[in-house]
Amino acid sequence: MNGILTIKNLSKSFGKKKVLENFNLNIEKGKVYGLLGINGEGKTTLIRMIMGVIPPDNGEIFFKNKKISFRDDTYKKEIGFIAEESVFYSWMPIKELLSFNASFYPKWNTQKANEYLEKFSLDPKTKIRHLSRGMKLKLGLIVTLASEPEFLILDDPTSGLDVPTRHDFLKEIIKELSETGTTILFSTHIVHEIEGIIDNLGILKFGNLILDEDFHELKNSCKRILLTSEEFLEDKIKIDGIITKKTNGNQSELVVYPWTEEKKQVIENLKPTSMEIKPLNLEEIFISFAS
Amino acid sequence: MIEIDTSSFIPFYEQIKLQIKTRISLGIVKPGESLPSIRELATLLIINPNTVARAYRELEREGFIYTRKGKGCFVTDDSTALIKKERTVILNQVFDEAIEEAKKLNLSPSEIKKIFERRLGLKTEDRK
Fold first, then answer.
1. Pairing label, strands A3-14, A79-83
2. HSE (CB half, 13 Å, CA atoms) of B71?
3. What pTM did the predictor assign?
4. Chain A: residue nearest B49 by CA?
5. Angle, nearest 10°, between helix axes A133-146 and A94-102?
6. ipTM of the complex as predicted
7. Do residues A283 and A198 lie in contact, with contact meaning Cβ atoms separated by under 8 Å?
8. A183-187 and A32-36 beta bridge pairing
């Protein structure tokens, strides 16, 4: 295993509903892993198990090649976690919250925390209950980055935020990436915003990853094929890897993965009137696979 | 302003390379001048720093830029001459695309040629 996080055969059900079934995942050190899935497919359940908030029914989770056991908190000191709604003690002033957190983390960087406070114009004396949603996210970011995590988990951190705040947040994540090369697991609903950031892409559906690929290779080999023809072609196209297909009159549209020269030849032999090969962006890839 | 087109066939690092070359050829950045740091450009584009690093690494290998440790990346003196050579390559790509489009419209080579010559005439007249 050369992954910083490795998950083997993880299963979890709530009542009769199987959320994850024999789920496997490997995230390599220094990579940014994008995790997508429509609501209710188990992204947050997965993250909660990694964070040791709920126990799995079956399977194993390894962090830095060490098996995590439920209720063992030691590994969490090396993991940073930012979620949609960070939970803080609302009566605490910012300053107190930071020193409270500092006591938990051996690598706590006070200077970094102070620099960020200044950068975000947060007054250390402000009580948390008086912060806006965007300011709370920035505070969560400070707490997380000051703990100098080796692994960062982002669970839909920017949902419900306005565009400028989201941009500020992502910029800080990029800055952290370029300074420390930390490993990131990034789960989000705002799919397009991670397009340029991720190294790997996983799409969660029916309790497992229906796609788990190097994102650059995926972008290279996943194609949309637009065909027009005199006769009805759809049923004649016998190639593997058709993710979606649509036909409208004499026009057909296919999303094919992986797209190869051989497949191109097969379609050309059917003599369509025209064939166009187009790339897909992350959002289009996600829609094709998840629907 | 460097921009990334997420719906393009061209990989992100290639897009960055191409745009930096364009800026050199237009004289927006001149030999000896510095490029934004990897972190600055990555933050600006909200893109993985490794992607920017790859673009810079390749530009350096191709002789367009050089790195001075701790100081950043700079445009080389040879860069303008190198870009002149590349102009043909870039134009080939553009023409290839146009020809593909023309084929889709069932135009014959002589028709394509006629259209090209007419456009060229129109555009060069504009300049006079």
1. unpaired
2. 11
3. 0.87
4. A178
5. 30
6. 0.82
7. no
8. parallel
**According to the 3-state scheme, what is the secondary structure of chain B?**
CCCCCCCCCCCHHHHHHHHHHHHHHCCCCCCCCECCCHHHHHHHHCCCHHHHHHHHHHHHHCCCEEEECCCEEEECCCHHHHHHHHHHHHHHHHHHHHHHHHHHCCCCHHHHHHHHHHHHHHHHHHHC
Q: Rounded CA gap, B89 and B25, in Å? A: 14
Averaged over A269-279, what is the pLDDT? 89
Query: How confident is the model over A95-105, as pLDDT tens digits?
Result: 999 999 898 88
Cβ–Cβ under 8 Å, residues A282 and A192: yes
Tally of CB atoms within 10 A around A9: 13
**Chain A residues touching B42 at Cβ < 8 A:** 174, 177-178
Question: How far B16 CA sits from the closest chain A CA (Å)?
Answer: 12
CB-CB under 8 Å, B47 with A196: yes
pLDDT tens string, chain B, 128 residues long: the values are 788 888 887 889 999 998 999 899 888 999 999 999 999 999 999 999 999 999 999 999 999 999 998 889 999 999 988 888 887 887 888 898 889 888 878 889 999 999 999 998 887 776 55
Q: Can you list the alpha helix ranges (DSSP code H) found in A120-214?
A: 133-146, 163-180
